[in-house]
Design brief:
69% helix, mainly alpha, 4 helices, single chain
C-alpha cells in the first residue's frame, strides 16, 4: 500500500487548465452570490447572473484541446457585457420615480430589454458559437 504522504497527484494536462480555471471561477461567483443571499443584498445576486452566464458560456465554447475560437469568445464576452450593462442599469434605477413604457424603470429594463435580450440574442449566440467551434467536434465524435 503506497504511503499517502508520498503519493503525487497527477497534474492536469495543459488543455484542461482553462476548464479548471472556469470551474474555479464558477465556484467563486457562486460563493459571492451565496454571500449576497445570506446578507440579503439582492443586488449582489442580480449582478452574479451575467458572471454566471460568462463563465458557463466560455466553458461551453471551450474546445476539447483547450482552445477558444477568437470570434466566438469575442461574441460571448460582448453578449455578457451587454447583459451586465442592462443589469447595472436596472439596479441603478431601482427606487426611482421614472417609468419605462408604463413600468418603473428598473422593472421596465428587465421586462422589455433583459428578457428579450436573453431569449433571442442568447439563442443566436449559441447558434454562432456552435457553428464556429462545436459543430466539427460533434461531427467528429459521431454524435447526431
Amino acid at each position: 500500500m503506497p504511503d499517502i504522504a508520498t503519493t503525487v497527484r497527477p497534474q492536469p494536462a495543459g488543455q484542461h487548465r482553462r476548464a479548471d480555471l472556469l470551474i474555479h471561477a464558477f465556484a467563486a461567483v457562486a460563493a459571492v452570490a451565496t454571500i449576497g443571499l445570506l446578507v440579503d443584498v439582492w443586488q449582489i445576486v442580480f449582478l452574479a447572473i451575467p458572471a454566471f452566464a460568462l463563465v458557463m458560456m466560455l466553458k461551453g465554447s471551450l474546445r476539447q484541446d483547450g482552445t477558444w475560437d477568437r470570434s466566438s469568445t469575442t461574441a460571448v464576452v460582448a453578449y455578457c457585457a451587454g447583459l451586465s450593462a442592462l443589469v447595472i442599469w436596472s439596479i441603478m434605477t431601482y427606487g426611482g420615480d421614472g417609468t419605462f413604457w408604463g413600468l418603473p424603470t428598473s422593472m421596465g429594463v428587465i421586462v422589455y430589454l433583459i428578457w428579450p435580450y436573453t431569449a433571442v440574442v442568447a439563442g443566436a449566440l449559441y447558434a454562432f458559437v456552435f457553428d464556429r467551434t462545436l459543430k466539427d467536434e460533434v461531427a467528429g465524435a459521431g454524435i447526431r
